[in-house]
Design a protein that fits this description.
By secondary structure, the chain is an alpha/beta fold. The chain has ten helices and nine strands. It has two domains: 5-176, Rossmann fold (3-Layer(aba) Sandwich); 189-282, 2-Layer Sandwich (Pantoate--beta-alanine Ligase, Chain: A,domain 2). Helix 7 links the parallel strand 5 and strand 6. It binds adenosine monophosphate. Adenosine monophosphate is lined by residues 32-33, 39-40, 42-43, 149-150, 152-153, 178-179, 186-189.
Length: 285
């Protein structure tokens, strides 16, 4: 849209949302941490095609980063993001400062139980509490009818869907497919950290997921066996260090020792210093 608006203050964002709702406009919302790529843009395009107005938030949320993680280095380029968001069909970009989001020390948090006990939640204690708290705040500020999330962060989407159901947030969650580079690597703002050699080796995430899918299709049912073969492939890449590989129930996220029905195959791998995640849902038979 030509006249895309940049809004920094939560109060102004709230007022814009109120006005839109009063005139019966359907608001689509795409929360992001910025440094936009085609994964984000696919969510923005879907919102623009399904809703009257699309709001994109760009906010690197300190609450969801643990000590020693990449909060300070996280790539940021608002100018570039504004151009990309506008071209994809965004009408409003909400990009608050830390002071505007957290004017005083937070004493209130949203915490979903159980779902963060697996996968990334184990490796990043407090991460999902930070995510649900900021997403809850953003939902209250923007007041969307629909919010768009990517399958790439599958656990995050499950946690947020559960929060929306449990706490009666008046909106619908749309979960959309992972957008990949030509060689299969899931798009991520963190891919910008990779040097050329690491970028080549990062392909091993999707290669190992596809290997798992093939084994399952060919009849392997033992999760340990599948994880072992994935691990063997991953460790052939010098820069790769496995954080976790898991085969889980796609709804509860509980680990499954046997592949029965649909499964989530998910992993996190360090490529050099960069932690990347990816997953596939493999349909059972
Ligand atoms: P982030 O900026 O990384 O917090 O991501 C913001 C939203 O974009 C989340 O809903 C992500 O799941 C989604 N997203 C990130 N990467 C991709 C991708 N490669 N394909 C689809 N959605 C993505």
């Amino acid at each position: 849209m030509l006249n895309m608006k940049l809004v920094k203050s939560p109060r102004q964002m709230r007022r814009i949302g109120d006005e839109l709702r009063q005139t019966g406009k359907k608001i689509g919302f795409v929360p992001t941490m910025g440094y936009l790529h085609d994964g984000h843009l696919s969510l923005i395009r879907s919102s623009a095609s399904e809703c009257d107005v699309t709001v994109v938030s760009i906010y690197v949320n300190p609450l969801q980063f643990g000590p020693g993680e990449d909060l300070q280095r996280y790539p940021r380029d608002l100018k570039r993001d504004l151009k990309l968001a506008a071209a994809a069909g965004a009408d409003v970009v909400f990009a608050p400062s830390d002071k505007q989001m957290y004017p005083e020390r937070m004493l209130s948090f949203i915490e979903v139980e159980k779902l963060p006990d697996y996968l990334c939640g184990v490796r990043r204690p407090g991460h999902f509490r930070g995510v649900t708290t900021v997403v809850g705040k953003l939902f209250n500020i923007v007041g969307p009818d629909r919010a768009y999330f990517g399958n790439k962060d599958y656990q995050q989407a499950r946690v947020i869907s559960r929060m929306v159901n449990d706490l009666n947030f008046p909106l619908k969650i749309r979960l959309l497919p992972t957008i990949r580079e030509a060689d299969g690597l899931a798009m991520s703002s963190r891919n910008a950290y990779l040097n050329e050699e690491e970028r080549r080796q990062a392909r091993v995430l999707i290669e190992s997921l596809r290997l798992a899918r093939r084994l399952i299709r060919e009849g392997t049912r033992n999760s340990e066996k599948i994880k072992k073969v994935m691990g063997q492939l991953i460790t052939t890449r010098k820069s790769a260090k496995i954080d976790y590989i898991q085969i889980s129930d796609p709804l509860t996220l509980e680990p499954k020792t046997k592949v029965v029905g649909d499964v989530l195959v998910a992993l996190a791998v360090f490529i050099g210093k960069t932690r990347l995640i990816d997953n596939l849902i493999v349909k059972g038979n």
